[in-house]
Design brief:
single chain
Length: 83
């Protein structure tokens, strides 16, 4: 379970780093303001969708981990009651 948490943090760090780099690149690119704003809006929409997808994935993984933990606890409890 700790590995999933670390993986999520690493992915989030890369995502944030990519966002910052992209935003800085767009702001310093020699383009008209309107075009830059449109590109930033598209980037923001794309990032929002990616974050939504990532959060759904993290939620599914967490639910799976909780389910496995409950199952292990149930089996351990049954084993101790039988002993």
């Amino acid at each position: 379970m700790a590995d999933s948490s670390n993986t999520g943090e690493i992915l989030l760090a890369f995502l944030v780093g990519g966002l910052v780099g992209t935003a800085v690149g767009l702001l310093y690119a020699p383009r008209p303001g309107k075009e830059t704003r449109q590109r930033l809006k598209g980037l923001t929409d794309d990032i929002s969708e990616r974050i939504k997808t990532m959060s759904e994935d993290v939620k599914e993984r967490a639910e799976h981990a909780v389910s496995e933990a409950k199952e292990k606890i149930f089996h351990h409890k049954n084993e101790t009651e039988e002993a």
